[in-house]
Amino acid sequence: MPWVLYTKKCKQRECACRYYGCGIVVPEHLEGAKVLDMGSGSGRDSFALSKLVGKEGFVTGVDMTEEQVNVANKYIDYHMKEYGYSKPNVKFVLGYLEKLTDAGLQENSFDILVSNCVLNLVPDKKKVLQECYRVLKEGGELYFSDVYADSTLPEHIRKDKVLWGECIAGAMWWQDLLKFAEEIGFAKPLLLHSRIIDIVGKPELKKIVAGHTFVSSLYRLFKLPAEKQPSCNVLYKGEITGYPQEIRLDCGLTFKKAVPVCVDSTVATVLKSGRFKDEFDYQASSCCSKALGITEMDPFKFADSAAPCKGVAPSEGSCGTQQSAQGCCGGKKSC
User: Fold this and answer.
1) 165 Cβ partners below 8 Å, 6+ apart?
2) Is the torsion defined by CA of 126, 130, 135, 137 positive or negative?
3) Count of alpha carbons within 13 Å of 136, Cβ hemisphere only?
4) What letters, b where the CB count within 10 A reaches 16 and e where it falls short, cover 58-90?
5) Angle, to 10 degrees, between the axis of helix 76-83 and the axis of helix 66-74?
6) Tell me: the pLDDT tens digits for 212-250?
7) Phi-psi region for residue 134, left (φ > 0), alpha (ψ -120 to 50) or beta?
8) What pLDDT score was predicted for residue 318?
9) What is the pLDDT of residues 286-322, one digit of tens each?
């Protein structure tokens, strides 16, 4: 993965040493995309993304800390030289996530937003998500890793300064994410990964949070157009860089190359309205009653489970039973 190569080969360690994140925020199919890195810090994620979007793409990093922005700007020329780019495809601006307009970021201007363990540090999380929705293009995606709690945290935890620094005190109840996403207009959140966070070697902090559990989870939120696509069969072409055999939309939706799978209207709209549009073939699906959709999943139960993700596109055919070579819906028709 280019992300791993970057973090191993980068000679400018200052960017990495000032890095504070809780996951890897590198979505698929970034070539040519316009990306906003929210809470970009010293620029580690942004510089990795600037390599992946290529010369035709562009990455903007925004952070509220002037010192971190200065560090990131310091290494732009270095990374452009390393990547062989004649001009910068990355920039860093000073600003607050709750006020992206003040940072000069316009509405409907980004294909992808990424955030790495930043939302928990912001008091007004719904406002940040509203700003995300505003600056995203239709079909665009917020791809973010953060810390979540299994319930609403009491004041004595929220006001603990040490726990704020540990990215625990500001953790959002995961159900609030679902609620805010629906209220703002995002499609239902898709969960990609989740793991339980254990506070190791700090018994005094474990005592304060006793009775509460935390996870680090990777979600994606899509801003969809008002006009939805009909349910249909989709076939992954296998042409996305790094994903020749399959691609995973979330922990319940994996599409194998050339295997038809019937998806509901929401998933069809996700695929057809954004950067994945040309990576699938689409067929009408009048006879498929079990269309796959986005399933609400408890990140704590998913983290506790040792079983691999389920919901993989069936290899037998688009309806999950043996079908003819043309699939259960007959010949190939565009939907």
Assistant:
1) none
2) positive
3) 29
4) bbbbbbbeeebbebbeebbeebbebbeeeeebb
5) 40
6) 999 999 999 999 999 999 999 999 999 999 999 999 999
7) alpha
8) 31
9) 655 689 999 999 999 999 774 444 433 333 333 232 2
Q: How far is Cα 150 from Cα 189, in angstroms, rounded to an integer?
A: 17
* CB of 220 closer than 8 Å to CB of 243: no
Contacts with 8 (C-beta within 8 Å, 6 or more apart), sequence order: none
Q: What is the pLDDT of residue 23?
A: 56
Query: Distances from the Cα of 9 to the Cαs of 2, 43, 45, 79, in angstroms?
Result: 10, 15, 14, 11
Is residue 256 within 8 A of residue 169, CB to CB? The reply is no
Q: Tell me, what's the pLDDT at 326? A: 29
Closest residue by Cα to residue 30 from 45, 50, 44, 47: 50
154-167 pLDDT, tens per residue? 999 999 999 998 88
Query: Residue for token digits 């983290």?
Result: 303
CA-based nearest residue to 60, from 78, 74, 71, 73: 73
pLDDT band at 98 (very low <50, low <70, confident <90, very high): very high
330 backbone φψ class: left, alpha, beta (φ>0; ψ -120 to 50): left
pLDDT at site 154:
96
The pLDDT score that the predictor gives to residue 278 is 97
Residues 253, 257, 258, 259: is their CA dihedral positive or negative? negative
DSSP 242-263: T-SSEEEEETTEEEEBT--EEE
Q: Tell me phi and psi for residue 148, to 5 degrees.
A: -130, 150
Sign of CA dihedral 221, 227, 229, 230: positive
| 267 CB-near residues (< 8 Å, 6+ apart) | 234, 249, 253, 291, 292, 293, 294
Rounded CA-CA distance 325/317 in Å is 9
Note whether 325 and 279 are within 8 A (CB): no
